[in-house]
Amino acid sequence: MTIFSTVGLFIALSLLVALLLGVITIKPWLKAPRSHSKPLDNQLLDINVAVFRERLAELKTDKDSGVIDDHHYQNQKLELERQLLDAQREVSPMVTPGIKSRLIVIVWVPVLTAMAYLMVGDRTPVFELWAAEDKVGQVADDLLAGRIDQPPAWAIEDGNQLISAMQTNVYRHASDYNRWMRLSELFLSLEATDSALEALSRAYRLSPDNEEIATTYAQISFFANKGQLDANSRRVLENILATNPEHEGAQMLMAMGEARASNFDQAQGWIKRLRESIAAKPGDHTQALSSLDELSANVVMQQQQASEGVEVTVKVNASLLPLVKADDTLFVAIRDVKGGPPFAAKRLPISNIKQGEAVISLSDLDAMMPERTLGSARSDKVQLAVIARISHSGNATAESGDLSGNPVVIGAEQTEVNVEINQQVP
In the chain, N or C terminus with fewer CB closer than 10 Å? Predict the structure, then answer.
């Protein structure tokens, strides 16, 4: 929400509150009778008249039935009439408020509301943002609109001001994908990867057919995800390749992502396809083809290492499936039964579990430390155990509420194991 929309909302709410209070306060005054110079509140008088009539009817009934005589009846009737006249004289007139009194209420309600708004909360960040808008607002707009490539020296004396002004400007022009793209470049220069990805995702949603934005989004997402293709980045790359099957950047990311996911045959297929595309182009591409050959050899080596690892089938007990959330994280690791850091571990999005089951390969490719590998553990005859856990927080350490299974001990030459997640961490 921009500054102007915030101020506008505050003014609108203030006027609404003032109007409601004004109506509640003034409406009874407006209903006051205007036909008399000194209007009276006749409600009490009406009640006294009704009581007088009831008492008079009772006296007449007593007289007719012979309970009281005529003399006593007349005295009681005179006394009731006297009481009624006294009550009428004591009724206080209702004073109709003048225009001055009404204006005081109408003016002071918004004034008091504004004072409360300023005094109750700390408005310093708002004032600082206004100051940044006044100082570097135009510079921010020029940068995001592409009119200038670099801000002037005076504009970056306070970097926070420029960043705030640029963010405000982008939200003010929320439908301009170019501004979101340039904002992501700013975040990348500040190494704020998460914020850059958010800005890129906005740009991509606004212009999904822009290859530059799509490729940048997939690439940043790929490396931010530690070389893994999540469902979103894979979908973006597939859309690029559907439109441009020869897109070399998308093919390279697909090859690297498939290799990282242990889909080695698919990775080799993408490398072959990319190699043929480059070789068909005129000119000398020896260096590029050599790099692809190295990548292919590296995939072969990874495939060999993976074949010496352990294939873990993780199953989630049906009773726990309702507790699994869309943003949970799956941890699978192989460690010493005595404890200590794992020899191989993977941190995966929960989307890897399909219909309550996932198959994960753990090998030396998943070692957390170069000197602490699954191969070295087997050489040293270390007794190993496989563990699996679903974390709600995404932390590697187990927390209350996480879903886990009992460690499964495996033999030195065992290459397959089943682990069931069947309990909740207390």
Answer: C
